[in-house]
Amino acid sequence: MRTAIQLTAEAGPWSGLIDWVVEAESLRVDHCWVAEAWGGDAATPIAGLSQHVERMTFGSGVFQVGARSAANTAMTALTLQRITGGRFALGLGASGPQVVEGLHGVPFARPLTRMRETIEVVRMAEAGELLALDGEQVRLPLPGGEGKALRLSLRPEPGDPPIPIYIASLSPRMLALTGEVADGWLGTSFVPEGATSSLDALSNGASRGGRTLANLDLCQGAEVAFARDEEELAAMVDARRGGLAFSLGGMGSADTNFYNDAYARQGFAEVAAESQRLWLAGDRKAAAEVVPDEMVLATTLLGTESQVADRLRVWADTGITQIRLYPAGENLKERLDTLGRALDLVRGLESSRSRESK
Predict the structure, then answer these.
(1) DSSP helix/strand/coil, 90
(2) Pairing assessment for the beta strands 322-327 and 63-64 based on DSSP bridges
(3) Domains and CATH numbers, the chain
(4) What DSSP element (H or E) covers 253?
(5) Cα(319)–Cα(253) distance, integer angstroms
(6) For the purposes of burial, counting CB atoms within 10 Å of the CB of 263, is it exposed (0-12), middle (13-18) or buried (19 or more)?
(7) What is the pLDDT of residue 130?
(8) What's the CA gap between 291 and 271, in Å, rounded?
(9) Phi and psi dihedrals of 222, rounded to 5?
């Protein structure tokens, strides 16, 4: 199981982000995902941070396909591949109508088609081909205009492997597309005990693409924090309810909330519906209070070391091959301590599974 951290450009001063990434590499973290929701962009921090480490790889987690043209997405990906020396993975996501339409002013129309066609353009650009696509969402060159198809002047270095493409997918159809065309899955809102719906969709898509689930890097993320006892764990669980309520009620509109739908498919339909109803009614405190302990513990890595180790094994047994860790802590030292303890558990699990397989 590969390990990763995730950050955003607005998460503290720039010097603090550099320290975090440098120290994480010293702890042998494999990868760093940089988010791009409605704050800082992801490309600029990746370009800067990659110059402070030698081994760690980076990924956009994620570029929203409605926020850039398909050609600009390809240009940015190839630029980051060059700057990082081939240590870049392109994470793409459809986002949702609140961000795509509200922030970027782009219609949230046929996101599945836009995702597929954007990836086609990226692969064309990598191959040095003319960017010509008569798609349903992406049309290059613009029909009826004065432009003609161009090929990018920036190409991969000789011998560079293709840029790995990950899709952040939640809905069954986007999951199937991930299985069909992507190199990895950037998952969230993950309940391993209810993961069958997601894994089946990924597997069906992989079959459609002539491959299997084993061809995908399955990446999931979770908050990790260690409790000394049950009392401290209860406080951690209480603190997490609000974040889940935000996902259930605030991460989308009343009609379109992919996070809410994902939790509903994984066994929490009644909670998801009630929390969303309360959130949209303006009662955010009540929306958080209806989130049960079971849901918090199912979606995080909170507990004593033995409890966290047990949950990590469940994740691994489900098929997760890369884990994004969001370590708790009030400062860099505390977050690094939490991260180090979690990494020890991951590596202990890997050693145990290796012995069991012999």
Answers:
(1) strand
(2) unpaired
(3) 2-224+302-357 (3.20.20.30)
(4) none
(5) 31
(6) buried
(7) 98
(8) 6
(9) -160, 150
The string over 113-135, giving b where at least 16 C-beta atoms fall within 10 Å of a residue's C-beta and e elsewhere, is ebbbbbbbbbebbbeeeebebee
Pairing label, strands 133-134, 139-140: antiparallel
Do residues 352 and 318 lie in contact, with contact meaning Cβ atoms separated by under 8 Å? Answer: no
Alpha helix ranges (H) inside the chain? 14-26, 43-49, 70-83, 97-102, 111-126, 172-181, 196-208, 230-249, 258-263, 269-280, 284-289, 293-299, 305-318, 332-357
Express each pLDDT in 37-81 by its tens digit. Answer: 888 999 999 999 999 999 999 999 999 999 999 999 999 999 999
Q: What is the pLDDT of residue 177?
A: 98
DSSP SS3 for 266 = helix
Omega into 62 within 30° of 0, i.e. cis?
yes
Place 266 in a pLDDT band, splitting at 50, 70 and 90: very high
Q: Give the residue from 110, 112, 108 showing the smallest Cα distance to 97.
A: 108
Asked, as a colleague might, if the bond just before 141 is cis with ω within 30 of 0, I would say: yes
**CA distances (Å), 249 to each of 53, 88, 189, 254, in order?**
38, 33, 13, 8
Question: Using 50, 70 and 90 to split pLDDT, how confident is the model at 144?
Answer: very high
Q: Choose among 23, 35, 31, 10: nearest CA to 338.
A: 23
**pTM exceeds 0.85 for this model:** yes
Would you give the DSSP letter of residue 130?
-
Q: What is the mean pLDDT of residues 125-144?
A: 96
How many angstroms from the chain centroid is the CA of residue 26? 23
d(CA 51, CA 37): 23
Rg for the chain (alpha carbons), in Å?
Answer: 20
Residue 252 is predicted with a pLDDT of 80
Residue given tokens 């849901």 in the structure block? 295
